[in-house]
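User: Fold this; tokens only.

Assistant: Input:
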Amino acid sequence: MSSLSPTVSLSNLLSNTPLSVSGLATGFDTEKIIQGLTAIQQKRIDLIQSEESVALNRQKAFKGVEAQLLTFQGLVKQLGQAQNNVFGVRAVSSSNEDLVTAAATSSAVPGRYTLTVNSLAQNDQVASQGYDSADAQITQGTLQLALGTGASKTITINDSNHTLQGLANAINAAGADVTASVINVGSGAHPFRLLLSSNKTGLSNALTITNSLGADAGNAVKPIFATQVQQAADASVSVGSGNGQLTIQNASNQIDGLFPGITVNLENANPDQTVTLTVSADISKTRQAIVDFVKGFNDLARTIDDQVRYDPATGQAGVLLGNPQVTAIQDQIRDALITPRSGLNPKLNSLVGLGITSDDRGQLVINDAKLDDALNGRVSGVNLNDVQNLFAVGSSLSNPASVGAKVSQTLDKMLDPVSGRLRTIDDGFQSSIDDFKKQIDVQTQFLQDQTAQLQHRFAVLETTVSQLQNIGNLLNAQFAVLSKSK
């Protein structure tokens, strides 16, 4: 009777068989079975993730509304601010821009201003004697330059720069407010000269030269600046005529303070020509700011409408449909815009006085003709100050006296980073999102634990079946051996 092979034993089969969930032993598709057993838990997770996605989309949509609110808030404050506002922008026209141009600040009083340009301010210009070329040698030493009573600059000439061009370069690098140029007059035996020009005009900026260069020596010639090319002079402007005429001298061709808030730029002189400057409010800037204000509200209203709209034809609904807090934001702002304010000119105590009304969609529309009439003083009893007062944001917050102040107060309360309505709404969205994330984490961990338990149980089942199969095979082999030995 033959013995069993030493490499095949029951104990070895039982101890060395690894755990498996392949289903090879049982014939089961264990992975599919596990997925089926955990499907309910996975659906629970999918449902929570879907709700989280909805909350995230709502929060994103709400952030879009908030962005539009911030934009509109900026437009309200820009239109209604007390200083440097569009109502103070001034336009200036000149009857002869070849002679005079001008610019005005908000302090300029609208009106007509006349003047005559007798002469322009000039800078000082002097020239040296002639030289053969720009590279002609000059003597060495120092040259001091000063404008008026200002500090002097010292220019040193030595072996490195003792040419006419070298002196020009040294002066230009010295920061003396003097420009040096080697010019070629094109005639005579020595056509090259060094021209010095002060960079500032006026008698007070006359050029003073202290020449300490050495005397002529060999081929080196000392530059002498004895030719007065142009005399420094002040600008002369006259205001009025006859015995009462006033004459003003100014070192520059740009005059500030001659007329309050107006900068006068002298371009050319003509003592026989009177120039009229007309200062007026720049209505174009004011009008554009009002148009931008209206557009800002309409963009905000359109954004909110898109998020809360329901289209019965397509069955599509906005992300924020049914959220009363969002529609309340729109209603509050619209109410602040259209409600007349006490304390203003009764003829202009609401936007209606400017031709701004609301259409059937809730959008603001502008009657251009009425707006232009109000801005240009063509409405009896209404001036530009009344328009400014309508939008002013600096009035009392307890009882806002203007449309601008009421809208600004409403927006400030909504957008307060600590206690504002938008902060409360966003916190609500974020709280829901955080709660969904926690639920997903808990349910996911439960699914992972459940899956691990099922995998372990099926692995044990597979191992047990495999071991039983191996025992059966071993017994069959021994029975076969016994049958052969009979």
